[in-house]
Amino acid sequence: MKKTIYTLFLLSGIFVFSQEKQNDTVEGTKTKEIQAVILKSQRKKQFADKAVYTFDKEALEKARYAKDLLQTLPELQLDPVSNTITSTKGGTTLFLINGIEATDLHIRSIAPAEVVKVEYYDIPPARWSTRADTVINILTRSTETGYVFGADSFFALNTGFLNSSAYANYTKGKNNFGLEYSLNLRDYNDRRVNSIYDYQLDGKHYRSDEDRADHFGYTFQSVALRYTRLVPDNYALQVKLNTDIFSRFSKGTGQSIFTADNSNEEHAMFKNNGSDYVIPKLDVYYSKKIGEKDEVSINVVGSHYTTNTSETAKEWITGSGLSVYDNDMMLKAKQTSVVGELAHVHDFTAGKLSSGYRISSSSISNDLNNLAGYSQYKVNYLEQYFYTEFSGKADQFSYRIGAGLTNIHNKSAENTFDEWSFTPKVILGYQLKNNQNLRYTGSYSPVSPWSSALSSNVVQLAPNIIQRGNPFLKSQQVFSNNLTYSFNNKYFDFNATLFYRYTDRIINQYYVLDNEFGGYALTYENGKNAQRYGVQLTGSYKPFGNSLLVVKAVLTPTSELVRNSQGALIKNDLIGNYFVLSSEYKSFSLQYQFNIPVYSLSGAFLNTNENQNNVFVSYKHKNWTFSTGMYWIGMPSEYKTKSLSESAVDYRVHTQIMNNKSMFVLGLSYDFSKGKKTEIQRKLNNETAPAATF
């Protein structure tokens, strides 16, 4: 199996570079922007870097809004917990409406009849490639007058689960106003956690077997106000102000059996933690047409806010009350983030050239009290990205060739990391038949460490066990290859991808002896490298050629290998999976989702993905939609983690949220629209860094 896969990728690589060299030496070839020829009866057009979907009259009539149409795409799904659209392949998904970044509520504000087509980029263009794994662009019709509004609520009857939202848009002439509000609330009082630490220390054998019950939850609110002015074939201006309000808490008590060699002690404990922030964000976008073939765009996003994080954990011997550990951590992080981007697009006869420069900066001032005492320190994360790419087509062969230059400059009190990386990308496509396509993509890019990994914060996890970051981490270097075969007709929409991903300087979490605090520390290192390869099969099957019955499936046989800094090889094999059965008949719809959780590598641990076993039913009557369903039928949501045999500490944890077990929910939605909005073809979409927590 391995030899076959390596051989295929070697041949693919030889093909890529030989084709690229040939294209560089050919002059005067008349080409055009990537296109595809396909039968009119099919609703999917496959390009080298994207698929384009259109929808028939039946689908448009059944959908409440554009979000319902997205659920019908073979590689998209409705996340039942967040009630948002995600990719079945995982990773980060970015949504656009006519090129402008869109929220879930913005997508809901589009009436199905307004949707012309949907572009599904499984290989994002350069301007989005560092931000998302998948890009969805919804193209709509536009007129100069219209308004739309709606509201919905989805809640559980027997526990604290609520998703609610409301939106409104109004268009008059060249001006558009939008307002959005969403609320996600969780309040669970029965989370059960069993964790075990087993290790050798100073010639003794220690074991901590802990059972804990938690009351935890969070509240996330988002408010957005948007103004757009569009002068066709001249300029577009958009100003967006949005505020994210977040708070979370966890309060847990428990007991444990602590063993040192043959001596046992009964311990009691409590662990409380929480965090909160309010992020006001200003996003200004401006684009200007220059002649018929050029367009310049500018985007600036800024935010300034404070994140408060606290953790209090105590453990003591039950009989005597003698303290085992006492952990109090308080972190106040003042964060200023700015993102700026300038881009230019020129249309040639031979194709399209896109170029740009983006800079993102986050400055964080930390006020910290923890096990190491009180400290004040600042960190700065700066990333610059220059990019250019050209796309074109010659006969049945299409291509997109890009080159970028990335600079990562991270500065903390202990260390400064500065590195420039060349980031090339090659995409080649060949149309085998009208409904069959073969594509190859190869890329190389750096990935900066996340803020918690770089943090110097210290917290206590268990007796003799602490956790801390590593300010001396370097960025990862990722080389990715994919070879994809696509096939579609009235009944099938199928993709088979051979993938190989090599990561140099892999950021790896592991246990190490800690001389400062004694015992072990869970921290981060730059390992030597990591590899991930396998086959991903995704698609949908419609036995009757319509939405009466649709089967979606993802199967991903995968091998994972990590070589740590000491040279030890860690390996894991898995078969990722996800299945959806759905049916639509007149005004009724039914959906069932399930998976079989599998272990995947994450640093020093193997983690399972979240289990799913959910069913939902909805009925649409005019502008109203009534919904009901059940999450995690017959089971609680659960999560498992276990350390690898190479780990210095044998760690296992099993978490179950009993509130989720067979959780019954009800939903009500109202959506109304009249006329259509004016949208802009926005070319730049950016986001400031997330809140810095530990």
Uncertain runs: 1-42, 676-682
Question: What portion of the residues fall into strands of 2 or more residues?
Answer: over 45%
Judged by helices, strands and strand pairing, the structural class is: mainly beta
Percent helix? under 10%
User: Cα-atom Rg, whole angstroms?
Assistant: 26 Å
**Using DSSP, what is the number of strands?**
39
* End-to-end distance: 41 Å
On the 0-100 scale, what is the average pLDDT?
87
Q: Give the count of helical stretches.
A: 6
Q: Any idea what the shape is?
A: globular
Largest sheet: 22 strands, antiparallel, barrel
Task: Write up what this structure looks like.
This protein has 694 residues and is mainly beta. The protein is 7% helix and 66% strand. The strands form 4 sheets. It has a 22-stranded antiparallel β-barrel. It contains 6 helices and 39 strands. The model is unreliable at 1-42 and 676-682 (pLDDT under 50). Keywords: Cell outer membrane, Membrane, Receptor.
